[in-house]
Amino acid sequence: MRNIKEIVSQLTLEEKAGLCSGQDFWHTKAIERLGIPSLMLSDGPHGLRKQDQSADHLGINDSIKAVCFPAACATAGAFDRNLLQQMGETLGNECQAEDVSVILGPGVNIKRSPLCGRNFEYFSEDPYLTGELATAFVKGVQSQGIGTSPKHFAANNQEYRRMSISSQVGQQALREIYLSAFETIVKEAQPKTIMSSYNRLNGVYTSQNEWLLTDILRKEWGFEGYVVSDWGAVDDRVKSLEAGLELEMPSSNGINDTKLVEAVRAGLLEESVLDLAVERLLTVTFDYIDHRRAVTWDKEADHAVARQIAEESAVLLKNSGILPLSASQKIAFIGEFAKKPRFQGGGSSHINSFKVTNALDEANKETKIIYAQGYDVTEQTDDVKLRTEAVEVAQNVDVAVLFIGLPDSYESEGYDRTHMSLPQNQTDLVEAVTAVQPHTIVVLYNGSVVELPWADKVAAILEMYLAGQAVGEATVNLLFGHVNPSGRLAETFPLKLEHNPSYLNFPGNGRDVDYQEGIFVGYRYYDTKNLPVAYPFGHGLSYTTFTYSDLKVSKDTLTESDNLEVSVTVTNSGTCRGKEVVQLYVSNQNANHKRPIRELKAFDKIDLAPGESQKVTLNLTPRSFAYFSEELNDWYIASGIYNIQVCRSSREVICETEVRINSSQALPFKVHRNTTIGELLEQPNCQSITKDLMKRIAASFGDHNEESESSAVSDEMATQMMSSMPLRALLSFGILTDDSLEETLIALNTVVE
């Protein structure tokens, strides 16, 4: 049995410091005399971007030929844990084949704004969905003996000045929205590493934020692996090591290693801190060595997996009955993306695909397709000739399928978008084609939400997102009904950018970015405000129909520590096999402050033949009913009624029931001079004292039921005035003296304790 502590004891101070940074861009350092190997980390998570030479982290230089799977913007739409675990297993197997010890991903930052340039690498605007899918992916990868590195920890929700901006986030929003997915991954999957982000969090760089990396990540959540910096993110190496960041990447060319050595020798850094960091690093290193095995990489088989994932993830946004297509129809494919699809994003996750399929070639295997380029994706200028040719083609076919989306230049790591629009030449093409062809279908290739001003003019919209290298086959299989669409939107499509809750506070002033919308991110904002949207979170159509019945809960009264089982029967009431995403939301309107109208708390995806029914059971835990109380600095469950809602999307409740929670938890309440009468009325133990005070206040108003000037003070006015009146105001009315006010405060605080 290998003794890690014994190995650490044999290392020199310089060797220990050296192990805490990279050897080069992708490799850790080796200590050959002690059998410590150099291991490779590589970008992911939707493909293996292994660079052996000319390394960089922005995807500028080529990597090995690999398989490009759909990006997270697409896979989130699958709402399928099993599919994400399968994808993870496949990627883990590829890492074994290429001797890569850790794949850097998944990206689990929340889509706070649709403008974030890296949104295509992130799953969702919803932390629960993000956490569940990312956990499944991590489990899949690590089942193959490969480490993962969920990123970017934390509150990295933009590219603008990402290496220095401070994300100013309140504790409730941090816990409920921005840390929640990481917490789920750590507690349920124990990733081998966590990647800290570039940005500062409430003024402190995350790479040297002890509260984040030690107090929360390790002490509270129980993380056992090591923390690695985002590439070039470390500001102060000594502070970052003390805070809990073990591995700095890439190499600092010895500069920061020397700083660690000097700090230890000067008594500014305890050597035990360095020892612990090395122990954590070596534990993960040798875990990989112990699980190393010979693997044959079958790229064609993995391509088939990539195709399946793309098919399961696509979202049918609209269908007036025109889909699926038939090979007997006269069909035109219009748009350069039909021939040269955009299937992945730019930057550090850019995969050098060993092959890529396109929809035009694949559809021509089914029937003869007429093609028109329609626009130039590179130039993005108004090309009247291309558009005119497309219109002529469109008006002479039964169905026109338009392939449009965002060019590479519109979204990438390193910069944010400035708008949600498609290129003008593509928008003009849609308008021109729909003017002559009512049977127009739009296929979208994009990494994040776009405005769809022409949505009511087209017959169908298929959202493929960035669907990986098998995009051509997947698109055609969906269009022709060989596969029934089953994806659901993991993000809201707003009607316009200005409707986004972060609009006035994104991307900040260059130094700070204020998250003033708090917990009201994505559908939590749009739905609570009842703001019209293009397509809501959770939306997605099918070629079949599903009906729901027999909603039941395991109990209708709970305590704050109880779990709840919710069951509902789903029937495929249509004519073809299909998959349905059962979405369960909880509506909590019991808190003293505003809560979202509903929040996703469970989901499952089922496969049903026509006429087949299945009972689906979903589990809710106490956390499903809790919110983070800044007063308690902990999770809190309020007593009251909670609506349990089975939904087709965040906007469409299919069936619902309610449960009551009798919670023994209580928020701290301290009575002071400015506590109001209304606040006291909400405290049961204060009732007798408060009612006595109210009688004395009412008496001071006089009899306002008489026909006199005092009738200007109505009963309602008097009640409202009393409710908002602070205790100190009773001095002005002569109801209390200084001494009696102090006595009252003591009496009230005694009964509320």
TrEMBL record:
InterPro entries: Cellulose_deg_GH3, Fn3-like, GH, Glyco_hydro_3_C, Glyco_hydro_3_C_sf, Glyco_hydro_3_N, Glyco_hydro_3_N_sf, Ig-like_fold. The keyword Membrane does not apply. Residues 580-650 form the Fibronectin type III-like domain. Pfam families: Fn3-like, Glyco_hydro_3, Glyco_hydro_3_C. The keyword Ion transport does not apply. GO terms for molecular function: hydrolase activity. Keywords: Hydrolase. PANTHER family: BETA-GLUCOSIDASE (PTHR42715:SF10). Belongs to the glycosyl hydrolase 3 family. This is Glycoside hydrolase family 3 C-terminal domain-containing protein. It comes from Streptococcus caledonicus.
